[in-house]
Amino acid sequence: MNPELKDIIEYAYVNSFCLTAKNGVNLNTISEDIIKYLVKYEFRVLSISIDGATNETYQIYRRGGNFNRVINNIKKINYYKKKYKIKFPEPIWQFVIFGHNEHELPLAKEMAEKLDMKFVSKFNWDPSYSPVKDKEFIKKESGYGVASREEFRRKYKKEHKL
After folding, report:
1. Which domains, from first to last, does the chain contain?
2. In this structure, what DSSP letter does residue 108 have?
3. Mean pLDDT of 62-81
């Protein structure tokens, strides 16, 4: 992590810049100080890559990651938001759909709601890696009515870029 991250976050806030991280952050190694800064200096959006609803499933793709640590860090963010009476950052649970985690989509959505997070599912870039098993289930649970990037492209006439 950039050793000047706290200074960058504070500088952006003081100078009225809005910072976001929408490409999927990993909250495995974030420090308590950075969590406080994200809240105190109103970092706007955190899209958090959480590809599972249990540690066992999460670790299949996020090797070396710890699902429970990520969830605890989200809870810390929520704690500081309440403490400082600030609505930012807005957390997003970003769930990349794979065959090994598709069964956890409903549980992940439920957990996201309890953590006051928006839930966004994404389709895997490489359908040959852990391909989805139940396409009808994915069509229903993804929120898009499709089960792959290709189906998304055909249905919506655009690329799946979230």
Report:
1. 5-156 (3.20.20.70)
2. H
3. 93
Distance CA 162, CA 150 (A): 15
Phi-psi domain of 105 (left: phi exceeds 0; alpha: psi -120 through 50; beta: other):
alpha
What sign does the CA torsion over 79, 81, 14, 92 have?
positive
* 94-111 confidence digits (pLDDT tens): 999 999 999 999 999 999
Classify residue 148 as exposed, middle or buried by CB count within 10 Å of its CB (0-12, 13-18, 19+): buried
Tally DSSP H helices, then E strands, for the chain. Answer: 7, 4
pLDDT of residue 155: 94
Strand residue runs (E) in the chain: 20-25, 45-49, 90-97, 118-123
Say what the pTM is. 0.89
Residues 85-92 have a mean pLDDT of: 95
Contact call for residues 26 and 67 (beta carbons, < 8 A): no
Maximum CA extent, the chain: 49
Q: Percent of the chain beyond pLDDT 90?
A: 71
